[in-house]
Amino acid sequence: MSYILVTGGAGYIGSHTVIELVNHGYKVVIVDNLCNSSYDAVARIEYIVKQHVPFFNVDLRDSDALDKVFKQYDIQGVIHFAALKAVGESTKIPLQYYDNNIGGTISLLNVMKANSVKTVVFSSSATVYGDATRFENMIPIPEHCPNDPTNPYGKTKYMIEQILKDIHTADNQWRSAILRYFNPIGAHPSGLLGEDPLGIPNNLLPYLAQVAIGRRDKLSIFGNDYDSHDGTPIRDYIHVVDLAKGHISALNYLNKLETGEGLFREWNLGTGKGSTVFDVYHAFCKAVGRELPYEVAGRRGGDVLNLTANATRANTELKWEATLSVEDACKDLWKWTTENPFGFNIDNYKWQVFNDDKSDYSNRLHTVSFANGFKVSLANRGALLQSVVKNGTSVVCGFQDPSRYIEKSNPFFGTTVGRVANRIGGAKFELNGNTYQLAANEGANTLHGGFHGYDKQTFFGPVAKQEKNGDKVVNTFLFKYEDKDGNNGFPGDVECVIKYTVDDESVGIEFIGSHLETSPAEATVINLTNHSYFNISGTDSTDGTVVKAITNTQLEVDDSLLPTGKFVPTHTDITKPTKIGPDCAFDYCFVVNEAGSGIDTRSDELKPVLEATHPNTNIKLVAATTDPAFQLYTGTGIDTPGFKPRSGFCVENSRFVNAINVPEWRKQVIVKRGETYGSKAKYTFVDA
Ligand code: NAD
Ligand code: UDP
């Protein structure tokens, strides 16, 4: 399988381009040293495209590390974004700009050459033209406009173009597409990706967005005495998604050349339409829905009246054209800004790699901490809850060592369970006239989704966000897993999203299973839960924990732990405070609503179904769910090094066990094509 290597793929334009590449069927590898970006962008790319995108935290100047990437993947071509890009900064630290941009490119080209990769699309800039207004008849700017960059940043772009030209002259099999961007603006329409400028933004729209969100007082308009319709300068603003698509067109163009044929050619990527600063200001105010404060300041040094592209060459040769407007870009930028007011930067959230191989970022541990010391950690594998710390006490069982999670003895610590939690009798069921035979992984039954259930899957994401409402801080984390038709024997394509909502005393979990419109199966079966083991004793045993539930009714089970269909009282009345321990153990499905439920219970009441306290600590756990049942399991079977039996207990929200094989219960778990399964659970830890 061949790949496109994207340098700087975690950055603003690179991340949007990776999405377009995947959408156009390309496989992508990203190399980025994250000096001006965040891995969260890559996590969100994977979340959007629902595919793993290999990522390497490598500086381009480290040619050995770069070479390893070329050896590991069959690289067919490179899109080269990685660079430092701030014009003002480049005049202050020019050496760093030359070293990073030119040094990085030379290292990249050497490694490409050594690996016989000779196709490159290069991020250049309209900056190479300098002040095109110095000529008559050069606006809109054509590619043949003489170059005269006026700052070190622009000079690095100019020099790299020259290097690529010389390489092509020396070896005419090299294929270089030079893309000269005008003013990229906007964000991904999903609201998940956008520009995340560190410090004070230099560019017009990122600055204006920070004014709108309240991070800056007002916009300074740099001069209103230019010769334009409103006196402000004219630029060619291009939506970043249009720009990203231009790279696909350029790559396709290079790939269509005859075998052995090379090329060196420049293309302007712009809309061909100029907008003034006030035009953009008004478009953004419209997207925001109010007038934003501004003042007219003096002209900014180096600014010129008009820099609009002549994009005819790209239009005709690459068959590419910008289709989105400044208004579209403003709308998308505003969505990105309101949904991510601090970009990817969330002040109470940190992550670390949660794999033995620290260069593999696919499984990470995400920790969110609150001012009162409440701390929650989640991992991509199984979208699991690894740890909750309340008042200095660890109240959820979990492993510190990621490799422990893949051991057979792991009793599903903290994990999401699916596609069907709990048991399916005889490892089979019938649906729409078909019999589905599953793998039996517990006697004759299927337990917790089979041998390759959701607990063993690495979820994409998370999309991590934070909302602040006065003193209240709420963090959300979205994880996604694509469960394909036939996995573990289940029919239908299901997209599973697990949404954690964490505040300074609780962990909420929303379970969403969408049976996709495009699924080959008419219907499927879903029952999702979380398998955390709680322990609020402050010791390694839950013995003595006092539980009190909303119901004493359980599903009666036979010898193989399958429901008989009867609702019966449990052995001890747990609607009264009940001390759990060796003589009072539970592993039963308790029924909150004998009528069962529909397929999506998310808008039903989030009912507190069980509370637990322990005399050792001052902590009370309240478990709530929208589901019609919950499994209370007091952990008798825990048998994994470091954890003894009854070192944790589970309160797993659930539909009725084996519902798919019981006619009156089936409607709880059958999800037709296009329908969505949903439920909620919440675990609150308060002072008793
Ligand atoms: P960005 O800073 O968001 O992305 C650049 C990425 O490259 C970052 O993720 C950074 O971490 C990475 N990077 C930098 N040096 C690296 C190195 N030595 N090794 C590995 N990774 C490195 O910037 P962007 O706006 O997405 O720009 C992408 C490219 O487009 C740049 O080359 C830039 O000069 C060019 N460009 C941008 C604009 C613009 O207005 N945004 C305009 C014209 C051209
Ligand atoms: N601009 C402005 N106020 C700002 C930033 C930019 O008035 O805070 C103007 C700037 O003078 C220029 C236009 O907006 O005319 C675009 O500037 P930007 O820095 O975004 O891009 P440039 O075209 O300079 O690369």
What would your notes on this structure say?
- This protein has 688 residues and is of the alpha+beta class.
- The chain has 2 domains: 2-193 and 236-273 and 308-316, NAD(P)-binding Rossmann-like Domain (Rossmann fold, 3-Layer(aba) Sandwich); 349-687, Beta-galactosidase, Chain A, domain 5 (Distorted Sandwich), CATH 2.70.98.10.
- Helix content is 20%, strand content 30%.
- A 9-stranded antiparallel β-sheet has the order 25-26-27-28-41-37-36-31-34.
- The structure holds nicotinamide-adenine-dinucleotide and uridine-5'-diphosphate (UDP).
Strand and helix map with partners:
Blueprint: E1 2-7, H1 12-23, E2 27-31, H2 39-49, E3 55-56, H3 63-72, E4 74-80, H4 87-92, H5 94-114, E5 119-125, H6 152-170, E6 175-181, E7 183-185, H7 204-212, E8 219-222, E9 234-235, E10 237-239, H8 240-255, E11 263-269, E12 275-276, H9 277-288, E13 294-297, E14 306-307, H10 312-317, H11 326-339, E15 349-353, E16 364-369, E17 375-379, E18 384-390, E19 393-394, E20 416-417, E21 423-424, E22 428-431, E23 434-437, E24 446-447, E25 460-469, E26 472-483, E27 494-502, E28 506-515, E29 523-525, E30 529-530, E31 546-549, E32 553-557, E33 563-569, E34 578-579, E35 587-591, E36 607-613, E37 619-625, E38 629-633, E39 650-654, E40 670-672, E41 676-687
Parallel strand pairs: 1-2, 1-4, 2-3, 4-5, 5-6, 6-11, 7-10, 8-13, 9-14
Antiparallel strand pairs: 9-12, 15-16, 16-17, 17-18, 18-19, 20-30, 21-24, 22-23, 25-26, 26-27, 27-28, 28-41, 29-40, 31-34, 31-36, 32-33, 35-38, 36-37, 37-41, 38-39
Helix pairs in contact: 1-2, 1-8, 3-5, 5-6, 7-9, 7-11, 9-11
This protein binds nicotinamide-adenine-dinucleotide and uridine-5'-diphosphate.
